[in-house]
Design a protein that fits this description.
Blueprint lengths: L2 H19 L14 E5 L4 E4 L15 H15 L7 E5 L5 H15 L4 E5 L8 H8 L5 E6 L11 H8 L10 E7 L7 H10 L3 H13 L3 E5 L4 H14 L9 H12 L4 H15 L7
Parallel strand pairs: 1-4, 3-6, 3-7, 4-5, 5-6
Antiparallel strand pairs: 1-2
Helix pairs in contact: 2-3, 6-7, 8-10, 9-10
């Protein structure tokens, strides 16, 4: 075998090996089969979600301004008008992810199937370019949603997200908007930012690089633990919505004690109490 044939054979083997190692192309998704999907990065597929785990938007108490703001922003996006990526930040269990899912349902109730909700897991953020390539192929408008978004240590995947939000050659597709929830306003822990400041040649530029990720979100919505009256209003709303027959039960006293043992008053704590209450009453919560 001469040198040319040997070279050709070797290059062919290398090309075949690279083809086997390369990730499969994202499969075309049928956006008509559901209103919500979960992105499976390892398979480059969108799995439809027939029934979304969510609560009615009218049950979200104590966050009226946040509800109104995100609903209006999403409605503009659904209508093809300019709208902002949104970061919902604040205390745990205060309704951040519940609001995103409730707003999606509310918009689709106004205009049937106008929006698709696409959830991407935090660990799959580096695969965002693949997901966006898939979403570009549909005319349906999509809310890409990442719950509990944050970055730690030497994780550099935040740069991929930053480029997706505004930068990059291709930019964000016109039919896509990005909503994220986080316990951190700046998505990165303070010690990580301080470490960048102490080791950088120009500390201010290093910290600016980190903080600017949050700046790419045009809409910031803060969530905080609620007061006692709002906490009671949440529970009262659940009791009425699920028609719980509380009878002579002093549920306010119970709920107050429940919140004390949890060390917080929030929507999540209210829901946990309602689940306990309905179980003791022997009544089912529809969809729970």
């Amino acid at each position: 075998m001469d040198d040319n044939n040997k070279t050709h054979t070797l290059l062919t083997r290398i090309a075949n090996a690279l083809e086997r190692l390369a990730p499969e192309s994202a499969a075309a998704a049928d956006f008509d089969v559901a209103d919500a999907f979960v992105w499976r990065a390892e398979a480059n597929t969108l799995d439809p979600v027939p029934v979304v785990n969510r609560i009615d938007i009218n049950l979200l108490k104590g966050i009226g301004r946040q509800v109104e703001t995100l609903l209006e922003n999403t409605r503009r996006f659904a209508d093809g008008l300019p709208a902002n990526n949104a970061l919902l930040w604040g205390a745990r269990g205060t309704g951040k992810s519940s609001l995103v899912k409730a707003v999606h349902a509310e918009i689709n109730s106004e205009d049937d199937r106008s929006l698709a909700l696409v959830e991407i897991h935090r660990e799959d953020i580096p695969s965002l370019p693949h997901l966006l390539s898939l979403l570009r192929s549909t005319e349906r408008r999509c809310v890409v949603f990442c719950d509990d978004l944050s970055f730690d240590g030497d994780d550099a995947s935040y740069k991929s997200l930053k480029a997706m939000l505004e930068g990059g050659i291709e930019g964000r597709p016109g039919n896509v908007i990005f909503y994220a929830t986080s316990n951190r306003r700046h998505l990165l822990p303070r010690d990580m930012m301080e470490n960048e400041r102490s080791t950088a040649i120009n500390p201010s530029e290093a910290v600016e690089e980190k903080v600017s990720l949050s700046d790419r979100f045009g809409l910031w919505l803060g969530f905080h633990n609620c007061d006692q009256d709002t906490f009671f209003a949440m529970i009262e709303g659940y009791i009425a919505y699920y028609d719980l027959q509380v009878g002579e039960i002093d549920w306010k006293a119970e709920a107050k004690e429940w919140s004390v043992t949890r060390g917080a008053r929030s929507g999540r704590v209210a829901w946990q109490y309602v689940q306990d209450l309905s179980g003791r009453l022997g009544q089912h919560l529809n969809g729970s």
